[in-house]
Design goal:
Elements (H helix, E strand, L loop, with lengths): L8 H14 L4 H15 L5 E2 L2 H7 L5 E2 L7 E4 L2 E4 H18 L8 H12 L10 H9 L4 E5 L6 H18 L7 E5 L2 H17 L6 H6 L4 E3 H5 L20 E4 L7 H10 L5 E6 L12 H5 L9 H11 L18 E3 L11 H10 L3 H9 L6 E4 L6 H5 L3 H8 L4 H8 L2 E5 L8 H14 L14 E4 L13 E6 L5 E7 L2 E5 L7 E3 L2 E3 H4 L4 E7 L10 H8 L2 E8 L2 H8 L9 H5 L1
Parallel strand pairs: 2-3, 5-9, 5-10, 6-7, 6-8, 8-9, 11-20, 12-18, 12-19, 19-20
Antiparallel strand pairs: 1-4, 3-4, 13-14, 13-17, 14-15, 15-16
Helix pairs in contact: 1-2, 4-11, 5-6, 5-13, 6-7, 7-8, 14-15, 14-21, 17-18
Length: about 575
Protein backbone atom coordinates (compact mmCIF):
# COMPACT_ATOMS: atom_id res chain seq x y z
CA UNK A 1 0.00 0.00 0.00
CA UNK A 2 1.11 3.54 -0.69
CA UNK A 3 2.25 6.17 1.80
CA UNK A 4 -0.91 8.08 2.87
CA UNK A 5 0.93 11.36 2.22
CA UNK A 6 1.16 10.47 -1.49
CA UNK A 7 -2.61 10.50 -1.98
CA UNK A 8 -4.28 13.57 -3.44
CA UNK A 9 -7.79 14.96 -2.79
CA UNK A 10 -9.04 13.33 -6.01
CA UNK A 11 -8.07 9.88 -4.67
CA UNK A 12 -10.01 10.46 -1.46
CA UNK A 13 -13.01 11.84 -3.35
CA UNK A 14 -13.21 8.70 -5.48
CA UNK A 15 -12.89 6.49 -2.38
CA UNK A 16 -15.67 8.49 -0.68
CA UNK A 17 -17.92 8.14 -3.74
CA UNK A 18 -17.45 4.38 -4.07
CA UNK A 19 -18.03 3.85 -0.34
CA UNK A 20 -21.26 5.82 -0.74
CA UNK A 21 -22.31 3.72 -3.76
CA UNK A 22 -21.39 0.53 -1.90
CA UNK A 23 -23.61 1.75 0.97
CA UNK A 24 -21.04 0.67 3.56
CA UNK A 25 -17.82 1.79 5.20
CA UNK A 26 -15.26 -0.68 4.02
CA UNK A 27 -11.59 -0.27 4.97
CA UNK A 28 -10.36 -2.83 2.43
CA UNK A 29 -12.36 -1.26 -0.38
CA UNK A 30 -11.24 2.25 0.53
CA UNK A 31 -7.56 1.33 0.63
CA UNK A 32 -7.62 -0.45 -2.74
CA UNK A 33 -9.58 2.38 -4.38
CA UNK A 34 -7.08 4.93 -3.04
CA UNK A 35 -4.20 2.90 -4.50
CA UNK A 36 -6.00 2.32 -7.81
CA UNK A 37 -6.82 6.01 -8.17
CA UNK A 38 -3.20 6.97 -7.41
CA UNK A 39 -1.89 4.36 -9.85
CA UNK A 40 -4.20 5.61 -12.62
CA UNK A 41 -3.33 9.24 -11.94
CA UNK A 42 0.35 8.35 -12.31
CA UNK A 43 -0.24 6.80 -15.74
CA UNK A 44 -0.87 3.08 -15.15
CA UNK A 45 -4.38 1.70 -15.57
CA UNK A 46 -3.94 -1.66 -13.80
CA UNK A 47 -3.22 -2.41 -10.13
CA UNK A 48 -2.07 -5.94 -9.29
CA UNK A 49 -4.41 -7.60 -6.80
CA UNK A 50 -4.14 -11.10 -5.33
CA UNK A 51 -7.07 -13.51 -5.21
CA UNK A 52 -7.67 -13.13 -1.45
CA UNK A 53 -8.32 -9.35 -1.36
CA UNK A 54 -10.05 -9.57 -4.75
CA UNK A 55 -12.60 -12.05 -3.36
CA UNK A 56 -13.38 -9.56 -0.58
CA UNK A 57 -13.72 -6.66 -3.01
CA UNK A 58 -15.95 -8.65 -5.36
CA UNK A 59 -18.50 -9.00 -2.58
CA UNK A 60 -19.09 -5.24 -2.61
CA UNK A 61 -21.56 -3.54 -4.96
CA UNK A 62 -18.90 -1.50 -6.77
CA UNK A 63 -16.38 -4.15 -7.86
CA UNK A 64 -17.16 -6.73 -10.51
CA UNK A 65 -15.51 -9.22 -12.82
CA UNK A 66 -15.06 -8.82 -16.58
CA UNK A 67 -18.73 -9.61 -17.23
CA UNK A 68 -20.05 -6.92 -14.89
CA UNK A 69 -20.86 -3.24 -15.32
CA UNK A 70 -19.29 -1.87 -12.14
CA UNK A 71 -17.09 1.18 -11.34
CA UNK A 72 -14.12 -1.10 -10.64
CA UNK A 73 -13.29 -4.26 -12.60
CA UNK A 74 -11.18 -7.20 -11.44
CA UNK A 75 -9.77 -9.04 -14.44
CA UNK A 76 -6.94 -11.53 -14.67
CA UNK A 77 -5.25 -10.49 -11.44
CA UNK A 78 -5.63 -6.72 -11.84
CA UNK A 79 -8.01 -4.00 -10.71
CA UNK A 80 -9.09 -1.32 -13.19
CA UNK A 81 -11.36 1.67 -13.25
CA UNK A 82 -14.12 0.55 -15.61
CA UNK A 83 -13.49 3.22 -18.24
CA UNK A 84 -9.84 2.27 -18.74
CA UNK A 85 -10.58 -1.45 -18.63
CA UNK A 86 -13.15 -0.91 -21.40
CA UNK A 87 -10.71 1.14 -23.52
CA UNK A 88 -8.17 -1.67 -23.18
CA UNK A 89 -10.70 -4.36 -24.13
CA UNK A 90 -11.93 -2.41 -27.13
CA UNK A 91 -8.41 -1.71 -28.37
CA UNK A 92 -7.37 -5.34 -27.86
CA UNK A 93 -10.37 -6.47 -29.91
CA UNK A 94 -9.52 -4.01 -32.71
CA UNK A 95 -5.89 -5.16 -32.76
CA UNK A 96 -6.79 -8.86 -32.62
CA UNK A 97 -9.08 -8.45 -35.61
CA UNK A 98 -6.23 -6.88 -37.59
CA UNK A 99 -3.81 -9.62 -36.58
CA UNK A 100 -6.05 -12.10 -38.39
CA UNK A 101 -6.02 -10.14 -41.66
CA UNK A 102 -3.13 -10.72 -44.04
CA UNK A 103 -2.43 -10.93 -47.74
CA UNK A 104 -1.45 -14.53 -48.48
CA UNK A 105 -1.54 -14.11 -52.28
CA UNK A 106 1.85 -12.47 -52.62
CA UNK A 107 4.08 -13.32 -55.57
CA UNK A 108 7.26 -13.59 -53.55
CA UNK A 109 9.59 -13.51 -56.56
CA UNK A 110 8.07 -10.27 -57.87
CA UNK A 111 8.15 -8.51 -54.53
CA UNK A 112 11.61 -9.80 -53.66
CA UNK A 113 12.82 -7.96 -56.76
CA UNK A 114 11.00 -4.78 -55.74
CA UNK A 115 12.34 -4.98 -52.18
CA UNK A 116 15.85 -5.43 -53.54
CA UNK A 117 15.32 -2.41 -55.79
CA UNK A 118 14.53 -0.16 -52.82
CA UNK A 119 16.90 -1.63 -50.23
CA UNK A 120 19.82 -3.37 -51.97
CA UNK A 121 22.13 -0.34 -51.65
CA UNK A 122 21.74 -0.45 -47.86
CA UNK A 123 22.17 -4.20 -47.50
CA UNK A 124 25.12 -5.82 -45.80
CA UNK A 125 26.07 -9.23 -47.13
CA UNK A 126 25.60 -10.77 -43.70
CA UNK A 127 23.46 -8.51 -41.51
CA UNK A 128 19.70 -8.35 -41.77
CA UNK A 129 18.30 -5.06 -43.05
CA UNK A 130 15.44 -4.43 -40.62
CA UNK A 131 14.09 -1.62 -42.79
CA UNK A 132 13.62 -4.17 -45.54
CA UNK A 133 12.02 -6.62 -43.09
CA UNK A 134 9.52 -3.91 -42.12
CA UNK A 135 8.67 -3.29 -45.77
CA UNK A 136 8.21 -7.03 -46.38
CA UNK A 137 5.76 -7.27 -43.50
CA UNK A 138 3.89 -4.17 -44.70
CA UNK A 139 3.13 -5.94 -47.98
CA UNK A 140 1.42 -8.75 -46.09
CA UNK A 141 -0.18 -7.41 -42.93
CA UNK A 142 -2.88 -4.91 -41.96
CA UNK A 143 -0.99 -3.85 -38.83
CA UNK A 144 2.69 -2.97 -38.64
CA UNK A 145 4.53 -1.44 -35.68
CA UNK A 146 7.97 0.03 -36.33
CA UNK A 147 10.11 1.06 -33.36
CA UNK A 148 13.45 2.80 -33.68
CA UNK A 149 15.49 5.51 -32.03
CA UNK A 150 16.43 8.80 -33.68
CA UNK A 151 18.44 8.29 -36.85
CA UNK A 152 17.42 4.66 -37.44
CA UNK A 153 15.64 5.52 -40.68
CA UNK A 154 11.96 5.33 -39.77
CA UNK A 155 10.98 8.04 -42.27
CA UNK A 156 13.04 6.53 -45.09
CA UNK A 157 11.49 3.15 -44.33
CA UNK A 158 7.94 4.51 -44.39
CA UNK A 159 8.54 6.37 -47.68
CA UNK A 160 9.71 3.16 -49.34
CA UNK A 161 6.84 1.22 -47.78
CA UNK A 162 4.32 3.70 -49.17
CA UNK A 163 5.91 3.41 -52.63
CA UNK A 164 5.68 -0.39 -52.45
CA UNK A 165 2.03 -0.25 -51.33
CA UNK A 166 1.24 2.03 -54.29
CA UNK A 167 2.97 -0.44 -56.63
CA UNK A 168 1.08 -3.34 -55.06
CA UNK A 169 -2.21 -1.50 -55.42
CA UNK A 170 -1.49 -0.55 -59.05
CA UNK A 171 -0.63 -4.15 -59.89
CA UNK A 172 -4.00 -5.21 -58.44
CA UNK A 173 -5.69 -2.58 -60.67
CA UNK A 174 -7.41 -0.93 -57.70
CA UNK A 175 -8.39 2.75 -57.32
CA UNK A 176 -5.62 5.01 -55.99
CA UNK A 177 -4.89 4.46 -52.31
CA UNK A 178 -6.19 7.02 -49.81
CA UNK A 179 -3.52 7.80 -47.22
CA UNK A 180 -3.85 9.42 -43.80
CA UNK A 181 -0.75 10.75 -42.03
CA UNK A 182 -1.09 11.90 -38.42
CA UNK A 183 0.81 12.51 -35.19
CA UNK A 184 -0.25 13.30 -31.60
CA UNK A 185 0.74 16.99 -31.63
CA UNK A 186 0.80 19.83 -34.13
CA UNK A 187 4.58 20.07 -33.82
CA UNK A 188 5.01 16.34 -34.45
CA UNK A 189 2.62 16.49 -37.42
CA UNK A 190 4.59 19.36 -38.97
CA UNK A 191 7.88 17.51 -38.48
CA UNK A 192 6.34 14.37 -39.99
CA UNK A 193 5.31 16.34 -43.09
CA UNK A 194 8.78 17.88 -43.41
CA UNK A 195 10.50 14.53 -42.92
CA UNK A 196 8.34 12.81 -45.55
CA UNK A 197 9.02 15.59 -48.08
CA UNK A 198 12.76 15.44 -47.38
CA UNK A 199 12.72 11.66 -47.74
CA UNK A 200 10.87 11.85 -51.06
CA UNK A 201 13.51 14.31 -52.29
CA UNK A 202 16.33 11.95 -51.22
CA UNK A 203 14.63 8.93 -52.78
CA UNK A 204 13.69 10.81 -55.93
CA UNK A 205 15.90 8.83 -58.30
CA UNK A 206 14.18 5.61 -57.20
CA UNK A 207 10.60 6.91 -57.34
CA UNK A 208 8.67 7.28 -60.57
CA UNK A 209 6.68 10.45 -61.21
CA UNK A 210 3.50 8.38 -60.95
CA UNK A 211 4.42 7.14 -57.49
CA UNK A 212 5.56 10.58 -56.29
CA UNK A 213 2.23 12.03 -57.40
CA UNK A 214 0.40 9.55 -55.15
CA UNK A 215 2.63 9.80 -52.08
CA UNK A 216 1.05 11.71 -49.16
CA UNK A 217 3.06 14.64 -47.85
CA UNK A 218 0.80 16.45 -45.37
CA UNK A 219 0.19 15.17 -41.85
CA UNK A 220 -2.39 16.39 -39.36
CA UNK A 221 -2.92 15.94 -35.65
CA UNK A 222 -4.81 12.82 -34.65
CA UNK A 223 -7.53 15.03 -33.17
CA UNK A 224 -7.97 16.82 -36.48
CA UNK A 225 -7.93 13.52 -38.38
CA UNK A 226 -10.69 12.11 -36.20
CA UNK A 227 -12.73 15.31 -36.20
CA UNK A 228 -12.43 16.97 -32.81
CA UNK A 229 -15.75 17.99 -31.22
CA UNK A 230 -15.32 20.91 -28.76
CA UNK A 231 -16.18 20.14 -25.13
CA UNK A 232 -16.66 16.45 -25.91
CA UNK A 233 -14.69 13.24 -25.39
CA UNK A 234 -16.07 11.92 -28.68
CA UNK A 235 -14.96 12.45 -32.27
CA UNK A 236 -16.80 12.90 -35.55
CA UNK A 237 -15.18 9.73 -36.87
CA UNK A 238 -15.74 6.64 -34.75
CA UNK A 239 -16.74 2.99 -35.01
CA UNK A 240 -20.11 3.97 -36.50
CA UNK A 241 -18.64 6.54 -38.89
CA UNK A 242 -15.20 5.36 -39.96
CA UNK A 243 -12.56 7.30 -41.85
CA UNK A 244 -12.51 7.19 -45.65
CA UNK A 245 -8.96 5.86 -45.88
CA UNK A 246 -6.95 2.85 -47.01
CA UNK A 247 -3.64 3.34 -45.19
CA UNK A 248 -3.14 5.13 -41.85
CA UNK A 249 0.39 6.06 -40.73
CA UNK A 250 0.85 7.42 -37.21
CA UNK A 251 4.15 8.96 -36.12
CA UNK A 252 5.38 9.47 -32.54
CA UNK A 253 2.97 6.74 -31.45
CA UNK A 254 4.67 6.38 -28.05
CA UNK A 255 3.04 9.71 -27.12
CA UNK A 256 -0.52 8.37 -27.59
CA UNK A 257 -2.47 7.44 -24.47
CA UNK A 258 -4.84 4.47 -24.18
CA UNK A 259 -8.08 6.43 -24.62
CA UNK A 260 -6.97 8.16 -27.82
CA UNK A 261 -5.42 5.00 -29.28
CA UNK A 262 -8.66 3.10 -28.66
CA UNK A 263 -10.72 5.81 -30.37
CA UNK A 264 -8.25 6.01 -33.25
CA UNK A 265 -8.41 2.27 -33.98
CA UNK A 266 -12.20 2.29 -33.69
CA UNK A 267 -12.41 4.96 -36.40
CA UNK A 268 -10.19 3.10 -38.88
CA UNK A 269 -12.09 0.80 -41.27
CA UNK A 270 -11.24 -2.91 -41.06
CA UNK A 271 -10.12 -2.81 -44.71
CA UNK A 272 -7.41 -0.21 -44.01
CA UNK A 273 -3.78 -0.89 -43.12
CA UNK A 274 -2.33 0.71 -39.99
CA UNK A 275 1.35 1.54 -39.47
CA UNK A 276 2.53 2.88 -36.10
CA UNK A 277 5.94 4.55 -35.85
CA UNK A 278 7.70 5.37 -32.61
CA UNK A 279 10.48 4.64 -30.16
CA UNK A 280 9.59 2.05 -27.52
CA UNK A 281 12.42 3.26 -25.29
CA UNK A 282 11.30 6.88 -25.30
CA UNK A 283 9.09 8.58 -22.72
CA UNK A 284 5.53 7.34 -22.80
CA UNK A 285 2.35 9.39 -23.07
CA UNK A 286 1.69 12.02 -20.42
CA UNK A 287 -1.93 10.88 -20.12
CA UNK A 288 -2.94 7.51 -18.69
CA UNK A 289 -1.93 4.33 -20.50
CA UNK A 290 1.17 4.08 -22.68
CA UNK A 291 0.02 1.65 -25.36
CA UNK A 292 2.87 1.72 -27.88
CA UNK A 293 5.56 0.99 -25.29
CA UNK A 294 3.52 -1.84 -23.79
CA UNK A 295 2.77 -3.40 -27.19
CA UNK A 296 6.52 -3.44 -27.85
CA UNK A 297 7.46 -4.57 -24.34
CA UNK A 298 8.59 -8.04 -25.44
CA UNK A 299 9.59 -7.07 -29.00
CA UNK A 300 13.04 -8.30 -30.01
CA UNK A 301 12.58 -9.03 -33.72
CA UNK A 302 11.27 -12.44 -32.67
CA UNK A 303 8.95 -14.08 -35.20
CA UNK A 304 6.93 -17.24 -35.66
CA UNK A 305 8.17 -20.07 -37.86
CA UNK A 306 5.69 -19.13 -40.60
CA UNK A 307 6.70 -15.46 -40.60
CA UNK A 308 10.41 -16.30 -40.65
CA UNK A 309 9.79 -18.58 -43.65
CA UNK A 310 7.92 -15.79 -45.45
CA UNK A 311 10.67 -13.25 -44.70
CA UNK A 312 13.34 -15.63 -45.95
CA UNK A 313 11.46 -16.23 -49.18
CA UNK A 314 10.87 -12.54 -49.89
CA UNK A 315 14.14 -11.00 -48.62
CA UNK A 316 16.62 -13.86 -48.73
CA UNK A 317 17.37 -13.35 -45.03
CA UNK A 318 15.78 -15.15 -42.10
CA UNK A 319 15.73 -13.59 -38.62
CA UNK A 320 17.05 -16.00 -36.02
CA UNK A 321 14.89 -17.34 -33.23
CA UNK A 322 15.69 -14.89 -30.40
CA UNK A 323 13.64 -16.42 -27.58
CA UNK A 324 12.98 -19.89 -26.22
CA UNK A 325 9.20 -19.47 -26.34
CA UNK A 326 7.17 -19.14 -29.57
CA UNK A 327 6.50 -15.62 -30.81
CA UNK A 328 3.17 -14.12 -29.81
CA UNK A 329 0.77 -12.97 -32.53
CA UNK A 330 1.62 -9.29 -31.99
CA UNK A 331 5.38 -9.94 -32.26
CA UNK A 332 4.87 -11.02 -35.89
CA UNK A 333 3.82 -7.44 -36.58
CA UNK A 334 6.64 -5.53 -34.84
CA UNK A 335 10.02 -4.52 -36.25
CA UNK A 336 12.71 -2.86 -34.15
CA UNK A 337 15.14 -0.90 -36.32
CA UNK A 338 18.66 -1.32 -34.98
CA UNK A 339 21.16 0.51 -37.16
CA UNK A 340 21.72 4.19 -36.45
CA UNK A 341 22.42 6.21 -39.59
CA UNK A 342 23.05 9.34 -37.55
CA UNK A 343 25.50 8.25 -34.86
CA UNK A 344 28.70 6.48 -35.92
CA UNK A 345 31.13 4.50 -33.77
CA UNK A 346 32.81 7.72 -32.62
CA UNK A 347 29.57 9.33 -31.45
CA UNK A 348 29.41 9.87 -27.72
CA UNK A 349 25.70 10.74 -27.97
CA UNK A 350 24.94 7.39 -29.61
CA UNK A 351 27.04 5.40 -27.14
CA UNK A 352 25.58 7.27 -24.17
CA UNK A 353 22.01 6.70 -25.37
CA UNK A 354 22.73 2.97 -25.76
CA UNK A 355 24.30 2.70 -22.32
CA UNK A 356 21.43 4.54 -20.63
CA UNK A 357 18.89 2.46 -22.52
CA UNK A 358 20.52 -0.70 -21.17
CA UNK A 359 20.48 0.70 -17.63
CA UNK A 360 24.30 0.64 -17.53
CA UNK A 361 25.37 3.49 -15.24
CA UNK A 362 29.11 2.76 -15.21
CA UNK A 363 29.33 2.75 -19.02
CA UNK A 364 27.26 5.93 -19.16
CA UNK A 365 29.67 7.76 -16.86
CA UNK A 366 32.66 6.37 -18.75
CA UNK A 367 31.30 7.78 -22.04
CA UNK A 368 30.56 11.15 -20.42
CA UNK A 369 34.07 11.44 -19.00
CA UNK A 370 36.08 9.94 -21.86
CA UNK A 371 38.15 12.32 -24.00
CA UNK A 372 37.34 10.28 -27.12
CA UNK A 373 33.76 11.59 -27.04
CA UNK A 374 33.93 15.39 -27.19
CA UNK A 375 30.27 15.62 -28.21
CA UNK A 376 29.13 14.74 -24.67
CA UNK A 377 30.05 16.35 -21.36
CA UNK A 378 28.85 16.15 -17.76
CA UNK A 379 29.00 18.99 -15.27
CA UNK A 380 27.52 19.23 -11.79
CA UNK A 381 25.02 21.93 -10.90
CA UNK A 382 27.54 23.89 -8.85
CA UNK A 383 29.76 24.18 -11.94
CA UNK A 384 27.00 25.38 -14.25
CA UNK A 385 28.10 28.82 -15.37
CA UNK A 386 25.66 31.59 -16.06
CA UNK A 387 27.15 32.03 -19.51
CA UNK A 388 26.13 28.45 -20.36
CA UNK A 389 22.52 29.58 -20.08
CA UNK A 390 22.93 32.63 -22.30
CA UNK A 391 25.93 32.24 -24.63
CA UNK A 392 24.36 29.56 -26.89
CA UNK A 393 21.61 32.03 -27.79
CA UNK A 394 23.94 34.61 -29.34
CA UNK A 395 23.30 33.56 -32.95
CA UNK A 396 19.55 33.72 -32.31
CA UNK A 397 19.87 37.17 -30.73
CA UNK A 398 21.80 38.41 -33.73
CA UNK A 399 19.16 37.03 -36.10
CA UNK A 400 16.42 38.81 -34.15
CA UNK A 401 18.39 42.06 -34.09
CA UNK A 402 19.14 41.99 -37.82
CA UNK A 403 15.52 41.16 -38.66
CA UNK A 404 16.50 38.01 -40.51
CA UNK A 405 14.03 35.93 -42.51
CA UNK A 406 11.46 34.30 -40.22
CA UNK A 407 12.27 30.76 -41.33
CA UNK A 408 15.95 31.45 -40.63
CA UNK A 409 15.08 32.80 -37.18
CA UNK A 410 13.16 29.61 -36.36
CA UNK A 411 15.97 27.44 -37.72
CA UNK A 412 18.57 29.23 -35.59
CA UNK A 413 16.35 29.16 -32.49
CA UNK A 414 15.86 25.41 -32.84
CA UNK A 415 19.61 24.75 -32.98
CA UNK A 416 19.82 24.85 -29.19
CA UNK A 417 17.57 24.10 -26.25
CA UNK A 418 17.75 23.85 -22.48
CA UNK A 419 15.88 20.73 -21.34
CA UNK A 420 14.83 19.93 -17.79
CA UNK A 421 13.29 16.99 -15.98
CA UNK A 422 11.00 19.22 -13.90
CA UNK A 423 8.87 22.32 -14.37
CA UNK A 424 9.36 23.73 -10.89
CA UNK A 425 12.29 23.99 -8.50
CA UNK A 426 15.85 25.29 -8.83
CA UNK A 427 16.57 23.10 -11.86
CA UNK A 428 13.08 23.34 -13.34
CA UNK A 429 12.25 25.10 -16.59
CA UNK A 430 10.22 27.87 -14.92
CA UNK A 431 13.18 28.98 -12.80
CA UNK A 432 15.69 28.54 -15.63
CA UNK A 433 13.58 30.65 -18.00
CA UNK A 434 13.75 33.51 -15.50
CA UNK A 435 17.52 33.03 -15.19
CA UNK A 436 18.03 33.18 -18.97
CA UNK A 437 15.91 36.35 -19.12
CA UNK A 438 17.91 37.85 -16.25
CA UNK A 439 21.21 37.09 -18.00
CA UNK A 440 20.06 38.51 -21.32
CA UNK A 441 18.65 41.61 -19.64
CA UNK A 442 21.93 42.24 -17.80
CA UNK A 443 23.75 41.96 -21.13
CA UNK A 444 21.34 44.56 -22.56
CA UNK A 445 20.13 42.04 -25.11
CA UNK A 446 16.45 42.38 -24.19
CA UNK A 447 14.21 44.59 -22.11
CA UNK A 448 12.71 41.64 -20.27
CA UNK A 449 10.87 44.00 -17.94
CA UNK A 450 8.05 43.82 -20.45
CA UNK A 451 6.16 40.56 -20.75
CA UNK A 452 6.12 40.65 -24.56
CA UNK A 453 9.68 41.65 -25.31
CA UNK A 454 11.29 41.40 -28.75
CA UNK A 455 12.53 37.83 -29.27
CA UNK A 456 10.61 36.17 -26.42
CA UNK A 457 10.09 32.51 -27.36
CA UNK A 458 6.97 30.78 -26.11
CA UNK A 459 5.50 27.29 -26.18
CA UNK A 460 1.77 26.64 -26.48
CA UNK A 461 0.58 24.35 -23.67
CA UNK A 462 -3.08 23.78 -24.66
CA UNK A 463 -4.73 22.96 -27.99
CA UNK A 464 -6.73 25.73 -29.65
CA UNK A 465 -8.64 24.87 -32.81
CA UNK A 466 -9.86 28.47 -32.99
CA UNK A 467 -6.33 29.74 -33.61
CA UNK A 468 -4.92 26.56 -35.13
CA UNK A 469 -2.30 26.35 -32.39
CA UNK A 470 -1.54 23.15 -30.52
CA UNK A 471 0.26 21.91 -27.44
CA UNK A 472 4.00 22.05 -28.10
CA UNK A 473 3.94 24.68 -30.87
CA UNK A 474 6.79 27.20 -30.61
CA UNK A 475 6.19 30.90 -31.23
CA UNK A 476 8.62 33.82 -31.45
CA UNK A 477 7.66 37.33 -30.39
CA UNK A 478 8.61 40.20 -32.68
CA UNK A 479 7.89 43.89 -32.13
CA UNK A 480 6.81 45.61 -35.35
CA UNK A 481 7.55 49.17 -36.51
CA UNK A 482 4.50 50.45 -34.64
CA UNK A 483 5.72 48.93 -31.38
CA UNK A 484 3.10 46.18 -31.42
CA UNK A 485 3.99 42.67 -30.34
CA UNK A 486 3.04 39.76 -32.58
CA UNK A 487 3.87 36.13 -32.00
CA UNK A 488 4.91 34.21 -35.10
CA UNK A 489 4.43 30.48 -35.67
CA UNK A 490 5.48 28.08 -38.37
CA UNK A 491 2.84 26.00 -40.13
CA UNK A 492 2.67 23.78 -43.19
CA UNK A 493 1.44 26.82 -45.13
CA UNK A 494 4.31 29.08 -44.02
CA UNK A 495 4.42 31.44 -41.05
CA UNK A 496 1.53 33.20 -39.33
CA UNK A 497 1.25 35.96 -36.73
CA UNK A 498 -1.08 35.88 -33.73
CA UNK A 499 -1.78 38.75 -31.34
CA UNK A 500 -0.72 37.88 -27.77
CA UNK A 501 -4.28 38.48 -26.51
CA UNK A 502 -5.56 35.66 -28.75
CA UNK A 503 -3.04 33.07 -27.63
CA UNK A 504 -4.15 29.93 -25.77
CA UNK A 505 -2.24 28.87 -22.64
CA UNK A 506 1.50 29.30 -23.12
CA UNK A 507 4.82 29.72 -21.33
CA UNK A 508 8.29 31.11 -22.02
CA UNK A 509 10.43 28.57 -23.86
CA UNK A 510 14.14 29.28 -23.48
CA UNK A 511 13.99 26.13 -21.38
CA UNK A 512 11.36 23.38 -21.67
CA UNK A 513 10.78 20.04 -20.01
CA UNK A 514 12.06 16.88 -21.65
CA UNK A 515 8.43 15.74 -21.92
CA UNK A 516 7.60 18.80 -24.01
CA UNK A 517 10.64 18.23 -26.25
CA UNK A 518 9.36 14.89 -27.55
CA UNK A 519 9.15 14.90 -31.31
CA UNK A 520 11.84 17.60 -31.56
CA UNK A 521 15.57 17.51 -32.25
CA UNK A 522 18.25 20.16 -31.70
CA UNK A 523 21.88 20.47 -32.76
CA UNK A 524 22.94 21.22 -29.17
CA UNK A 525 21.21 20.41 -25.89
CA UNK A 526 21.92 21.53 -22.33
CA UNK A 527 20.05 18.94 -20.21
CA UNK A 528 19.68 19.80 -16.54
CA UNK A 529 18.62 17.13 -14.04
CA UNK A 530 17.42 17.82 -10.49
CA UNK A 531 19.96 17.85 -7.66
CA UNK A 532 17.85 15.42 -5.64
CA UNK A 533 16.12 12.21 -6.65
CA UNK A 534 12.51 12.36 -7.84
CA UNK A 535 10.13 9.68 -9.10
CA UNK A 536 9.80 11.32 -12.54
CA UNK A 537 13.53 10.84 -13.17
CA UNK A 538 13.61 7.56 -15.12
CA UNK A 539 15.77 5.79 -17.64
CA UNK A 540 13.25 6.65 -20.36
CA UNK A 541 13.29 10.35 -19.48
CA UNK A 542 17.10 10.54 -19.52
CA UNK A 543 17.28 8.59 -22.80
CA UNK A 544 14.69 10.87 -24.39
CA UNK A 545 16.61 13.98 -23.36
CA UNK A 546 19.90 12.60 -24.67
CA UNK A 547 18.43 11.66 -28.04
CA UNK A 548 17.05 15.16 -28.64
CA UNK A 549 20.69 16.19 -29.31
CA UNK A 550 22.15 15.67 -32.77
CA UNK A 551 25.64 17.14 -32.36
CA UNK A 552 26.40 18.22 -28.79
CA UNK A 553 25.09 17.33 -25.33
CA UNK A 554 25.99 18.91 -22.01
CA UNK A 555 24.44 17.00 -19.13
CA UNK A 556 24.14 18.76 -15.77
CA UNK A 557 23.80 16.05 -13.11
CA UNK A 558 25.47 14.66 -10.06
CA UNK A 559 26.44 10.99 -10.22
CA UNK A 560 24.15 9.78 -7.44
CA UNK A 561 20.99 11.23 -8.99
CA UNK A 562 22.07 10.13 -12.47
CA UNK A 563 22.60 6.56 -11.22
CA UNK A 564 19.17 6.44 -9.60
CA UNK A 565 17.52 7.74 -12.74
CA UNK A 566 19.30 5.36 -15.13
CA UNK A 567 18.40 2.39 -12.96
CA UNK A 568 14.72 3.37 -12.58
CA UNK A 569 12.44 2.02 -15.32
CA UNK A 570 9.00 3.37 -16.10
CA UNK A 571 6.47 0.75 -14.95
CA UNK A 572 4.18 -0.95 -17.45
CA UNK A 573 1.08 1.21 -17.96
CA UNK A 574 -1.43 -1.32 -19.33
CA UNK A 575 -2.04 -5.04 -19.61
CA UNK A 576 -2.67 -4.83 -23.35
CA UNK A 577 -0.42 -7.81 -24.09
CA UNK A 578 -2.47 -10.01 -21.77
CA UNK A 579 -5.73 -8.65 -23.22
CA UNK A 580 -4.55 -9.67 -26.71
CA UNK A 581 -4.20 -13.33 -25.72
Amino acid sequence: MSDPISYEPLDHQLADLLEELAKEKHDTLRQWVLDLSKKTREGSIALACDTAPASVLLQTKVVGDASALKPVIFDNGYLYLYRYWLYQQQLAQQINERLQLCNEAIDKNTWKQRLDYYFSQDNDSEAINWQQIAAALALKTRLLIISGGPGTGKTTTITRILALLIEQNTQAEQPALRFSLAAPTGKAAMRMSEAIRDSIAREGDKLSKEIISQLPQDASTIHRLLGYIPNSTHFHFNKNNTLATDVVIIDEASMIDLALMSKLFAAIPATASVILLGDKDQLSSVETGSVFNDLCATADNHYSTATRAYLHAITGKSPQQTAASPASAIEDHIVCLQKSWRFDAQSGIGKLATAVNKGNFSTSVSVLEHADYPDVERVVSAELKRKQLSEPWQAYLQAIKSKADLDDIFTIFNQFRILTALRKGMNGCVYLNTQVEKQLSQQNKFNTGKRWYHGRPIMITANSYRTGLFNGDIGITLIDAQGQAKVWFQSKDGTKAISPVRLPQHETAWATTIHKSQGSEFDKVLMILPTEDTAVLTRQLIYTGITRAKQQLVLVANKQVLKLGIERETPQATQIQTALM
